[in-house]
Fold each of these.
Amino acid sequence: MFGKKKTSIVKMLPKLKGEIREHELLAKHTWFGVGGPAEVMFFPADNDDLREFVRNKPHNLPVFVIGSGSNLLVRDGGIPGVVIKLSSKFYRQWQMDGDKLICGAGMKNAELKKIMTENNIGGLEFLVSIPGSLGGAIKTNAGCFGRELKDVLAGATVINEEGEELEVSADDFNFGYRCSFFPEGWIVTSMTLKVVPQDAQETLRIIEEQKQYRLKSQPINAKTAGSTFKNPEGLRAWELIKNTKSNELKVGGAAVSDKHCNFLINTGDASAEDIENLGESIIKKVKDETSIVLEWEVKRVGIKK
Ligand SMILES: Cc1cc2nc3c(=O)[nH]c(=O)nc-3n(C[C@H](O)[C@H](O)[C@H](O)COP(=O)(O)OP(=O)(O)OC[C@H]3O[C@@H](n4cnc5c(N)ncnc54)[C@H](O)[C@@H]3O)c2cc1C
């Protein structure tokens, strides 16, 4: 593994202001609570720092951006290369600009609650109940309760593979259902969201209603990464799992949630391998019994141990 390599890639990196951690355990950065180490983890101080990294890192050094890790299954062997996390203060800043809200990509969706109520604005309530950061919400076109990120995005700032800062429009992300397609190497650093004037009490009411719905129907306090499989066209993944009794399968510490059949959970001591093997066993059972092949919605990254 990375530890056995003779040359640390840290020595090959330019001089940076942000924090660098070698062999940082990614289990600490994922909702599943699993995942091996990042060979190097970099927490840029600001955009100048991030640009310096992108422009002067060794060519072909693999780079992966992590948000809050709420849609990721990081494998037990970890992620080679550099994992970037935009969690410094710079990436959690926000400001109002007329009827728009400009936010750093490292801001947690949940932080929008305070901003909306303190400024008597609304329109982003659905995002508050989705775990994760705004950067992750763009990549996954996060959505629920009939709305998705693309409905509220006016534009964003990204740093591209050449280290240039670009202003891009919402259309440039090519949003689809729970996904977006933008050039490999783009790192979203901030975004402009459309908001509407709204009384704080009304915002709180909507957020509370959505929270109660989630509490009843999803294991939001468990170690999970949300919906595991995409709904096949015209069908529901959870129904296929339930009807085939695949929800009764278990692998090591990985199980299917009692509250929602499409949520896999780490019951305590699961490895990433347990969770991935459980997912694959479900895919096989559903296919054997219905011919339908479920596709992973959770993004699996990194290498096996
Ligand atoms: C209990 C639970 C409930 C959930 N419910 C929902 C739901 O209702 N609706 C829904 O849509 N999702 C839901 N999810 C899934 C998840 O919360 C969303 O997909 C979320 O948007 C992921 O954000 P994140 O910051 O955690 O991203 P991560 O999981 O860390 O990363 C997801 C992807 O985004 C990329 N990424 C992250 N930041 C950036 C950036 N700055 N620039 C470029 N790429 C970036 C990563 O490389 C990765 O490809 C749920 C998850 C859980 C655990």
Amino acid sequence: MSGATWVSLTEQTAKIAALRATAALLEWDQQVMMPTGGGDARSGQIALLAGLVHEHMVAPALSATLAELATQPLPADQAAAVRNLQRDVARAIRVPAALVSELARAQADGFQAWLDAKQSNDFASFAPKLSHLFALKRQEASAIDPTRHPYDVLLEAFDPGTTLATLRPLFARLEEGLRPLIDAVRGLPAPAEVSGTFDLTAQKALHEQVMVALGFDTHRGRLDFSEHPFSTAIANGDTRITTHLYADDLLAGLSGTMHEAGHGMYEQGLPKALAGTTLDDAASYGLHESQSRFWENFIGRSLPFFRWLAPRIKAHIGADVAPEAMFAAANPVEPTLIRIFADEATYNLHILVRFRLEVALLEGSLAVEDLPAAWNEAYATTLGIRPATDREGCLQDVHWGSGAIGYFPSYTLGNLYAASLAAALQSELPDLWGQVERGEFAPILAWLRDRVHRHGHSAEAPDIVRAAVGDRDGVTDLLDHLWSRHGKLYGVSRS
Ligand SMILES: [Zn+2]
């Protein structure tokens, strides 16, 4: 009887979900609270939990339950859960337990080594750890499926359905489409920055007000601080987001908070009745990123948003900042070195560089020792600027040191999904920008909840987006948006 088998499945997956939640909490703690002295012990703790998750995933009982359910007529959402779990289980069964633990340890060690290397601008100290990580990821990909390109196998863990074959032309189209905009504004005066010194305590209060106004539920989530902003879900009612405040940069910190709040609100909108079944998971990292980018860029860098924000800055911080000045400062088009501070127009070129380099590192056509030189060369060629130090070059991001290889394309997929969601939303909510200016964000969040969040992982991300927006092209939507916003700001138009 399928009802009893389904219940048995949810009992098994609930244990796996609890182990994953515990690991996520330890990882959150490592980045937010833990003194650096705890690093060695923490690596072992996280490796132990990863091993336990692996044991449960490869247990014959789980495979048997899934096989039984797969032969039965099931409601659509249960059938989707079985499909998701069978794919995850297949990936887990093929990777030996010893490699799983070694990877977890190498990732925790890699994170600590990256943190130290970035602080001391010392790539050489990090290189052996990174080299070891790439070797382990190659082994992992080969164990899962030796017949496919290792990059496709790793990418599937983040964005199933996307491959090298779809990404390469997509990045090529973006590179080609972005160049005329970047060329058109080159040499034009850059918008003035919003300069000053902004009290950190007052900034924190402002960030909390913005986050709550957008719809982030603080009874089911919290905001903390870390070196590199991130978000994680411990459980359906416990979503953690972090941000980083800058005394001399009001907008950089705020865009980080809006980004992570976007991630957090997606987690808070996932179907909690289906907890632990994978149906309550995000459909993909790219779709997750679309939610953060939507709020950070489409809403958070718009003039109506700054009109709403200005009096709140005055109230919290005491600073008079004109909305138009913030809008201009938040929307430069200017090649820069640091990805997380990149403008909307050049951002995807930062991802393009990382995508091409990580493919080369994984294939072995680029040696880890040669990464700094290759990185600097790629920035010179693609963005026309060259980092002076590795700290502002290949050491800037946490991802590779944490073993997240194949993750970067999710950012660009997110930007493209977000562009299409925003275009569809604008046509369906005619007073969208009036609502933003009045701080009425609820209808926007409700639309995202309906079109994206509530579907969880009941379908793959491209299908969820297609159902949400119809047949739109993300590259076209993003380029239209960029020309419309930045073209107007700089007084240039598409030829
Ligand atoms: Zn993000």
